[in-house]
Amino acid sequence: MNLPDSDTQQNTSNEDKEAINREQKLIRVAVLGASGYSGSELVGLLHNNSHFKVVAAYASAQATPQPLHAIAPAIAANCDLVVHPWQESELDRLQDLDAVFFALPHETSAELAAQFIARGIKVFDLSGAFRFQSADAFRNAYGFEHPHPELFEQAQYALMEWTQLDPRGMLFAIPGCYPTAATLALKPACESALLVPDARPVITAISGVSGAGRGANLRTSFCEVSLQAYGVLNHRHTPEIAKNLHREVVFTPVLGPYKRGILATCVAELQAGVTEEQVKDIYQQAYQHTPLVQVRETPVAVDHVAHTPMCLLNVHVKAGTLVVVSVLDNLLKGAAAQAMQAANVVFGKPETAGLRGRF
Ligand SMILES: NC(=O)c1ccc[n+]([C@@H]2O[C@H](COP(=O)([O-])OP(=O)(O)OC[C@H]3O[C@@H](n4cnc5c(N)ncnc54)[C@H](OP(=O)(O)O)[C@@H]3O)[C@@H](O)[C@H]2O)c1
């Protein structure tokens, strides 16, 4: 909608004035990486969130302009927004933004964040560029030198059920999909000292192929995909999970021959004498007020959460062993929905705004 100037405003009807007021209160955002799997999900969520307005959406510089509904018809059938190629010159056009979302390769997020922050635009980054607080930890996990390590200290890690975000902050790091599934599963046990002090939880997590992104890749092409472990003992999400749980973990990711969703089986050794009842009480208490994370008594499955912003947990205890099965949609609670949840909280909106229709 074009806002009328002051001369014409006096002739505007009350209905129009209300619409103008609503428009002026909207949080103005842009999405970079909007043609990718998590970015297109995010534009879909923002488009259906009445508190936000997506003013611009971008793909890579090589892309040709396309409406989002052509890129992601299942997500954005009602969205006419055109996704344009990203050029740095666009920065000058985006001066009046409140926030930008990056659903970009880690290297690109690491490069671009400083320029938006310098313009007073909050950054919500879905990549791994700002999930660590030291240059060494970042280099070890991602294998390149971070161009802006000075931003680490202001980045807030937005695992929403376990973090109180400071809304005055400018940079929000959305956790990885595997770390979200594993951390939500094990954090209550770790925080309540239920585990043997030096126990190393063992996490085996199967992910659908969308976890690898939309770009063409032989390993993830239809005829090549098989149930297959990868990154054994050196996956970059291992240190992120260990940081979240304040202990070492053994993490094995497994590529699953399906499109979306993670099922993580998390096993840990309990302290002597810890009962099933104690463990279940602690998990129920931890997640009694978290709309997007629920503890279930019955088995949980990827199909229960695919296309939803939910994470479901199923907790078992026997003979000193804790097993928590955690399921979520890697593109939603593992990426776009968690970013939406964080932005809602940062801008003082209900935590699940724009997400309710999805569960
Ligand atoms: N997939 C998941 O399950 C998941 C979960 C959690 C976090 N993440 C993280 O979220 C980020 C995006 O992941 P994704 O799976 O959605 O990736 P994706 O499907 O491969 O999409 C990447 C997006 O970035 C754009 N892009 C690539 N290089 C660019 C550049 N140099 N400048 C501007 N735009 C560029 C691409 O545009 P074109 O289409 O033009 O190439 C595309 O829109 C990654 O950092 C990933 O680690 C992904």
Automatic annotation (TrEMBL):
Alphabetical list of HAMAP family matching this protein: ArgC_type1
Catalyses which reaction(s): N-acetyl-L-glutamate 5-semialdehyde + phosphate + NADP(+) = N-acetyl-L-glutamyl 5-phosphate + NADPH + H(+)
Pathway(s) per entry? Amino-acid biosynthesis; L-arginine biosynthesis; N(2)-acetyl-L-ornithine from L-glutamate: step 3/4
Question: Which protein, by its recorded name, is this?
Answer: N-acetyl-gamma-glutamyl-phosphate reductase
Major site of localization recorded for this protein: cytoplasm
Question: What are the EC numbers?
Answer: 1.2.1.38
Species annotation: Aliidiomarina sanyensis
Please state which protein family the record places this protein in: Belongs to the NAGSA dehydrogenase family. Type 1 subfamily.
Tell me the GO molecular function terms: N-acetyl-gamma-glutamyl-phosphate reductase activity; NAD binding; NADP+ binding
Residue stretches making up the Semialdehyde dehydrogenase NAD-binding domain: 28-170
Primary enzyme class? oxidoreductase
**UniProt xrefs under NCBIfam families:** argC
Give the GO terms filed under biological process for this record. Answer: L-arginine biosynthetic process
Q: Which InterPro entries match?
A: AGPR, AGPR_dimerisation_dom, AGPR_type-1, NAD(P)-bd_dom_sf, Semialdehyde_DH_NAD-bd
CC per GO annotation: cytoplasm
The compartments listed are: Cytoplasm
Return the CDD domains for the record.
Answer: AGPR_1_C, AGPR_1_N
Q: Which residues form the active site?
A: C177
Q: Does the keyword Cytoplasm apply?
A: yes
Going by the UniProt record, its keywords in alphabetical order are: Amino-acid biosynthesis, Arginine biosynthesis, Cytoplasm, NADP, Oxidoreductase
Q: SUPFAM superfamilies, from UniProt?
A: Glyceraldehyde-3-phosphate dehydrogenase-like, C-terminal domain, NAD(P)-binding Rossmann-fold domains
List, alphabetically, the Pfam families matched: Semialdhyde_dh, Semialdhyde_dhC_1
This chain's function reads: Catalyzes the NADPH-dependent reduction of N-acetyl-5-glutamyl phosphate to yield N-acetyl-L-glutamate 5-semialdehyde.
